[in-house]
Specification:
11-stranded antiparallel β-sheet; single chain; two-stranded antiparallel ribbon
Length: about 350
């Protein structure tokens, strides 16, 4: 069954690889962009950025920024096969996370990080290295959660940090874009995060007001929507930056089924240079599923209860699983003993 599924992907992979050529080097003038009534490129609809391309370039591909078409198809199908055999706590098909369900496509890029040219996030500055070491050291005395404050936000569904900036997610990598003359709204499926982007030229808010999603301001540069975001919450640690980074997104419609999304992050107090990610968005059929997560999520209580049981030696460490070959989840059932 699994081999048949992978074989079936080859046909759709060949058809979709042409979109990756546009991604790697969009040709001006070859695509007529659909327009809104006010004449701007129409980015509206449902999109996904689910991908099997690694965020940073693997060592074995150090000097290879792009695959050939056939290499991209082969790498895609291999990644699909590996993902179907991953050990997870759910079945991919239940979350519409397979390529056929999600609209994921091959990518000629060998990494999502495209600048620097080595496909790697730049090194931390000396001060940032010290800051990260201190942060990690502060976490070590209490590796198990003691209170709800020990959570970084996802268990309590306060904020899902894959939303802004966009990074790889195992499922739910879907967006609903709505736009008007003065606003663009991006709704992310995970936790139903909303990103409100004014286009009316208003200045950024004061630096004293900091949020997990930051303070976004957008404008058009030709047919590209450019969004600058600052004022991230200090708890929004992003690759070592404690919310002090600046994010610049660019969204360009390059085909009926593709928006080219790139973003650059900059923080001279954290990284030795700015860096850029290319994360294409592909059209999918909506609507999106409701993300039924709330601040009374039972996972938080279970996490604390299991942590106390682990300390007392009554519960083994979590995530002890075995490999499976049928793409079904290995579910661990634990019974609390009074």
């Amino acid at each position: 069954m699994r081999n048949a599924f992978i074989a079936a992907l080859v046909a759709c992979s060949v058809a979709s690889i042409g979109a990756q050529d546009r991604q790697a080097a969009p040709v001006k003038g070859t695509y007529k962009v659909p327009r809104t009534p006010d004449g701007r490129p129409d980015l509206q609809g449902y999109w996904t950025n689910l991908t099997y391309t690694p965020f940073e370039r693997p060592k074995e591909l150090a000097n290879k920024p792009l695959y050939s078409e056939q290499e991209a198809i082969d790498a895609f199908n291999k990644a699909v096969g590996d993902s179907q055999n991953q050990v997870v706590h759910y079945v991919n098909t239940d979350f519409a996370a397979t390529p056929v369900q999600s609209g994921a496509k091959p990518n000629r890029r060998t990494s999502l990080v495209i600048d620097p040219s080595d496909g790697k996030v730049p090194p931390l500055t000396p001060d940032a290295q010290k800051r990260e070491a201190a942060r990690l050291a502060a976490d070590r005395p209490a590796p198990l959660a003691r209170t709800w404050r020990d959570d970084r936000g996802t268990v309590w569904c306060v904020f899902h940090d894959r939303a802004v900036p966009s990074i790889l997610a195992p499922y739910g990598s879907n967006y609903h874009i709505v736009q008007s003359r003065d606003w663009v709204v991006l709704e992310y499926e995970w936790n139903s995060e909303h990103r409100l982007i004014p286009l009316d030229g208003r200045p950024h808010g004061p630096s004293s007001v900091r949020t997990y999603a930051g303070d976004a301001r957008g404008h058009w540069e030709g047919d590209t929507l450019v969004v600058e975001t600052i004022n991230f919450n200090e708890k929004r640690n992003f690759f070592g930056s404690p919310g002090t980074f600046k994010l610049v997104d660019r969204f360009t419609r390059v085909a009926d089924d593709t928006i080219m999304h790139t973003y650059t992050v900059e923080d001279s107090s954290t990284w030795t240079r700015p860096w850029t990610v290319e994360l294409p968005m592909h059209r999918i059929n909506g609507p999106m599923l409701e993300y039924a997560c709330n601040e009374n999520n039972a996972d938080a209580f279970t996490t604390l209860r299991n942590a106390r049981a682990q300390e007392a030696g009554k519960l083994p460490p979590p995530d002890r699983t075995k490999n499976v070959d049928d793409a079904k989840a290995t579910i661990i059932e634990r019974v609390d003993k009074k």
